[in-house]
Amino acid sequence: MQHYFSKETNVEHNRREVVYKVLDKELKFMTDTAVFSKGKIDFASDLMVTAILKKEDPLHGDVLDVGCGYGTLGISLFNENMNLTMIDVNDRAMDLTRENLIANNVKAKVLESHAYEKVEGAFDYIITNPPIRAGKKVVHEILIGAKDYLKDNGILYFVMNKKHGYESAKKALDEFFEIEVVDKKDGFRVVRCVKK
Predict the structure, then answer these.
(1) pLDDT tens digits, residue range 23-58?
(2) Which CATH number does the domain housing residue 104 bear?
(3) Distances 48 to 6, 38, 43, 77, 132 between C-alpha atoms, Å
(4) What is the model's pTM?
C-alpha cells in the first residue's frame, strides 16, 4: 500500500479540485490519490490556518512548510511579506504543490526533502501538520529538528491530536521551546513554539 509520506507514487490518478475559503480569499487546490486529505482540506489544517491568522499579524520573513502535501498551509497563509519554502517527500504532492502555487498566484521555493535533509538556511517560522502515520520517529524528527532551522526566537507551529502523541511531543519540545496552545478543538491542538 502506498502512503502519502512515501517518495514515489505509482497509484492510479484521480484528480479533483478542492475549493477552500479563508478570510476574504477563495483558494483552489488540485488534489489526487496518494496524497494526504485528497477529498477536502482536512480539519486539523483548517484549524491551524485559522489559528495562525488570528495570532500572527501576519507571518513574515522566511517561512518553511514541512510536509506541505499539495500546499494547503503555505498557500493559505501566504502574503507578500514572506519568502516561502515548501518541502515534502512525496513526488505527486510536490507536482501538485507546484500546480497549486501557479493556480493561486503564490510564489514559493519547492524542494523534495525528507524532513530537513535538503533544507539550507534558517527561518523565522516553520509550519507543519506532521505525518502522524509515518510514525513517532519521523514526527519527532520534524518537530525537534525545527530548532536547528529556526532563527533566534523563531517560531514553530504544528497541529496534532492529543490521541496521536501530543503529550510526548510536547515533553520532547519543552527543552528547546516556550510552548503555547493557541487553539484546540475536537482533540486537536494548534501549538506555537518559540525557540529558546
Answers:
(1) 889 999 988 877 776 778 999 999 999 999 999 988
(2) 3.40.50.150
(3) 24, 18, 9, 10, 16
(4) 0.92
